Amino acid sequence: MIQLNFSKSGGLVPAIAQDYQTGEILMLAYMNSDAFNTTLSTGKATYYSRSRKTLWVKGETSGNIQRIKEIHIDCDDDTVLLKVEQLGGAACHTGHRSCFYKKVEDGSIRITEKPVFDPKEVYET
Amino acid sequence: MIQLNFSKSGGLVPAIAQDYQTGEILMLAYMNSDAFNTTLSTGKATYYSRSRKTLWVKGETSGNIQRIKEIHIDCDDDTVLLKVEQLGGAACHTGHRSCFYKKVEDGSIRITEKPVFDPKEVYET
């Protein structure tokens, strides 16, 4: 049985999703105990949406599911690292491959990549 | 001026430290506004310790400083990604190179790497 420490952030732990082949960091989201156990049992990255206050199977709307390849836990059991296969080519709801497409340069932000898909065509408005 | 959204987690955002050459994820810690600005101005990863409630220059005790190579921000400005040069060969206070040395396998935890240093020799007890 795997025990995570959910006590430090109100029942949640951060979960990093990393491309299992390239090492690129795709996104960070949060998991409660249910989300972690669902991820383990289904093999699909499942998070807890802090805004919607519900479980969220990544890609259930967009089709951009994250297939779990490996799961790692950190030294004090309060952060999860998912190594995933990102279906559909993009993790970010903006259509970018990675959510970390903003780079800090000389005190301002530069956008480092173009979207892979148009969010208006994927999400109903 | 770079504006992060510190409102979702009580004035903090998670910050992921990734080896800038290998892509290995080294650790996750938290930043408040001061920690982020100090990181920007000094070029050394500086976090906020939730337990000690103070700024924490990574490596100030162990010598295992993280030199900043790149800083990225995510789509909704509430997570930071640091691409760093990890001095001393290890990020984790346990002496492991990465904090994510516990791998989930068949419902239990397997330790995937050996420590690089002995924490008893680095930290005063």
Describe this structure in words.
Two copies of one chain form a homodimer. By secondary structure, chain A is mainly beta. The first copy, chain A, has helices at 33-42, 119-122; strands at 13-19, 25-31, 46-49, 54-57, 66-73, 80-86, 102-105, 108-111. Chain A starts with 12 loop residues before the first strand and ends with a helix. In chain A, 39% of the residues are buried. The mean pLDDT of chain A is 95. Chain A binds chain B through residues 1-2, 8-9, 14, 16, 18, 22-25, 27-28, 40, 50, 70-77, 79, 81, 92-94, 96, 99-104, 107-109, 112, and chain B through 1-2, 8-9, 14, 16, 18, 22-25, 27-28, 40, 50, 70-77, 79, 81, 92-94, 96, 99-104, 107-109, 112. Strand 7 (102-105) of chain A pairs antiparallel with strand 5 of chain B.
Task: Name the features.
homodimer, 125 residues, mainly beta, four-stranded mixed beta sheet, two-stranded antiparallel ribbon, 36% strand
Short synopsis of the structure:
The structure is a homodimer of 125-residue chains. Chain A is mostly beta strands and 125 residues long.
